């Protein structure tokens, strides 16, 4: 099954023009001076109503992360210095989440929690989780970091634990999927996760992709 590539690379199309028999007359050119207006500071995420368009951060989260919201319908979900997320369709079985986590441990072989050491080892352990079905895996590039991505689905009848984060155990319900990307940073292993229902997975990716493409991770 095809693994989604949420951090897209765009290729420039270079168009060549044939030279005319005679060179065109030169026209005067003007240059616009660079703007001296500094970019707006990222907005601190707080609980509350819908997120208006803008660039956001969670200042207590390390390494520092910023991302942009451009579409309507996003709300803050969980808000913690070690884990936070934004959601669409919250409170429904088809809730869509873009999650940021510092990984303390992962549920691996036999479902036991194993302390996370490197992003590669964490990805390998997740693949051994008996409560998950692996749909794909690949190298991942996101926010300026290189790491590993695993796409998994809960095809069982019970909630399945995936990893341990600061607020507690991150689990997900039957008939849901996760796209988990893992990166080594100076603060430990960082995960950026997209979650959605199996029934609405394509829509989840379509809504999450514009957010994922704006992520910047610094200070690692």
Description:
- Helices cover 9% and strands 40% of the residues.
- Strand 11 (160-165) and strand 12 form a beta hairpin.
- The relative contact order is 0.20.
- The protein is mainly β and 220 residues long.
* Overall helicity: under 10%
Overall shape: it is globular
Tally the beta strands: 15
Within CATH, the superfamily carries the name Mog1/PsbP, alpha/beta/alpha sandwich
Cross-sheet strand order for the largest sheet: 4-5-6-14-13-10-9
CATH topology: Protein Transport Mog1p, Chain A
H/E element sequence: EEEEEEEEHEEEEEEHE
Residue-averaged pLDDT, rounded?
85
Alpha-carbon distance between the termini? 32 Å
Q: Low-confidence parts, pLDDT < 50 over ≥5 residues?
A: 1-30
Compute the gyration radius: what is it?
A: 21 Å
Tell me the strand percentage band.
Answer: 35-45%
Q: What is the CATH-assigned architecture? A: 3-Layer(aba) Sandwich
Secondary structure class reads mainly beta
Overall CATH class: Alpha Beta
Question: How many DSSP H or I helices?
Answer: 2
Annotation keywords:
220 residues, mainly beta, Protein Transport Mog1p, Chain A, 4-stranded mixed sheet, 2 helices, 9% helix, globular
SSE layout and pairing:
Layout: E1 43-44, E2 54-57, E3 65-69, E4 75-79, E5 83-88, E6 96-102, E7 105-107, E8 113-115, H1 119-126, E9 133-142, E10 145-154, E11 160-165, E12 168-172, E13 176-185, E14 188-197, H2 201-212, E15 216-217
Parallel strand pairs: 1-2
Antiparallel strand pairs: 2-3, 3-15, 4-5, 5-6, 6-14, 7-8, 7-11, 9-10, 10-13, 11-12, 13-14
Report a brief summary of the structure:
The protein has a single domain, classed as Mog1/PsbP, alpha/beta/alpha sandwich (Protein Transport Mog1p, Chain A), CATH 3.40.1000.10. The protein has two helices and 15 strands.
């Amino acid at each position: 099954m095809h693994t989604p590539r949420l951090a897209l690379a765009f290729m420039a199309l270079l168009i060549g023009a044939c030279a005319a028999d005679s060179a065109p007359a030169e026209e005067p050119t003007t240059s616009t001076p660079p703007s001296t207006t500094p970019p707006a500071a990222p907005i601190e995420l707080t609980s509350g109503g819908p997120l208006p368009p803008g660039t956001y951060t969670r200042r207590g989260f390390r390494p520092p992360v910023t991302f942009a919201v451009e579409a309507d319908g996003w709300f803050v979900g969980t808000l913690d210095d070690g884990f936070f997320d934004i959601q669409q369709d919250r409170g429904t079985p088809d809730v869509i989440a873009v999650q940021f986590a510092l990984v303390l441990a992962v549920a691996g072989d036999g479902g036991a929690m194993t302390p996370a050491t490197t992003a590669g080892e964490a990805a390998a352990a997740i693949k051994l989780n008996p409560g998950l079905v692996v749909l794909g895996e690949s190298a991942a590039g996101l926010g300026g970091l290189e790491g590993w991505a695993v796409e998994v689905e809960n095809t069982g009848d019970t909630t399945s634990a995936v990893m341990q984060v600061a607020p507690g155990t991150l689990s997900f319900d039957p008939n849901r999927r996760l796209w988990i990307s893992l990166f080594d940073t100076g603060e430990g292993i960082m995960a950026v996760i997209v979650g959605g229902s199996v029934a609405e997975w394509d829509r989840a990716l379509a809504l999450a992709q514009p957010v994922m493409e704006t992520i910047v991770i610094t200070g690692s």
